[in-house]
Structures are given as C-alpha cells and as structure tokens.
C-alpha cells in the first residue's frame, strides 16, 4: 500500500498549485479530482480536449497519479460521453481505478444497477475499474446496499471512506462485510458527530483498517481526502496524517 492525497485537499488552488503543496508536504502520489465545480480539471474540459487533459495529468509535479475522483453534472448522453473521456484519460496516464458517486437515496435500485453496469462496461474497454464512493445521502451510505450493488454489477467495486460509516444514520456498523469489494480508499479522521476532525481526535483506527485491507490483499493507495477546515492549520494536519498512515503500513 502507498499513501496518496486528493487534490480536493486544496480545492481552492489550481491542479498545478495543489500538487506543488502536496510535494512540499512530502507526498509522492496524488489522486486527481475531476469535478465540474472545481478550479482544477473539469470532466467537460477532459471531453473537449483529451490531449490537453492528458498532458496536465501525466505525473503532475513528478507526483504519481493513483486514481481519479469523477464528479459529472451533465445528464443523458453527455454524462456518458464525459465519463468515457475521463476513463480514456485514466488509461493514458496509467491509472487503474476511477471513483464515481452512487445515486442519491430514493433512486430506484434497478435504475442504479443499470447505470453502474454501463459505467463498468465503458471503463472495462479501457482497462479501468470503477469504484462507488461511500457517501452519506446516497445509496452507499448503507453497508448492506453496497454489498448488494457490488454483487449485482460484475466488476464494480467500492471506494471506501470509513468516515461515512462512523457518522451518519448507519454509524457504528462494522465494515468487514464490504472490505472484499474495496478498489480504493479515502481517509480523514472522524467523530460520531462530525465528518472531519483534527487528526488523532476521531475514531478512525488506521492500523486496524490496514490489517483488514491486507487480509484481502489490497495493495493500492490510501488517499487522504481532507478539505480545509476553519481554525485548523491545514498543512500541519496534512503532514500529520501522512506520517500516521506511513507508520501504520
């Protein structure tokens, strides 16, 4: 396993400046967020000029790219066109895993299964795997639903964010049941009543999580996904969690 960090940790900066910050903090790997609302790289920009996106995302600031976190706001055919471009970007930059959000709560189960099957099929054509993101307010907030979706969509995995199973409506449930589906990991520290707290003040058991992942032979990235918080020295927290994760490996 390796320690990585998402560009979302510095979402107010450009891609290049965010990567420079991570390099200053001695991270060697990065997860790039492709978000239509960001100032970094937008899925619509990837679709409009794939070659330019490849040039920007290929080892930015000498950092190894571990994954892409894709958030597309377009609908209908345009949604799938942008997703196709994003997985082509992943293949071109030698990235195996992309993350997408699952559908919002209330979405018919069969409808979501069909959407995910289509995404997995598109990604598989480029040798890329799709992981749904653990997320409160979406179908993946429930561990049982994660298992059922992964079992119904061949080739689908999970981008595990344990914070969303510590806070929220399903807090306190063991995640052992879904470890075998994990394709990627997002991390911060979390308390039962706050999604993000200072590193060391929450309930994420990093060493235990590493051991759980080792049992299923997970060998990829642990990606820090920790946006800035008011009244907290973000650089200190980013350095602290890197050191903590490295010591757990």
Automatic annotation (TrEMBL):
Q: Where is the Xylose isomerase-like TIM barrel domain?
A: 22-229
Which keywords belong to this entry? Isomerase
Keyword Manganese listed: no
Q: Name one Pfam family in it.
A: AP_endonuc_2
Kindly give the Gene3D superfamilies that the UniProt entry links to this protein: Divalent-metal-dependent TIM barrel enzymes
- Looking at the record's lineage, which domain of life comes first? Bacteria
Q: Name one GO molecular function term.
A: isomerase activity
Q: Does the keyword Iron apply?
A: no
Kindly indicate where the leader peptide sits in this chain.
none
Q: What is this protein called?
A: Xylose isomerase-like TIM barrel
Organism per entry: Lignipirellula cremea
User: What lineage does UniProt assign to this protein's organism?
Assistant: Bacteria, Pseudomonadati, Planctomycetota, Planctomycetia, Pirellulales
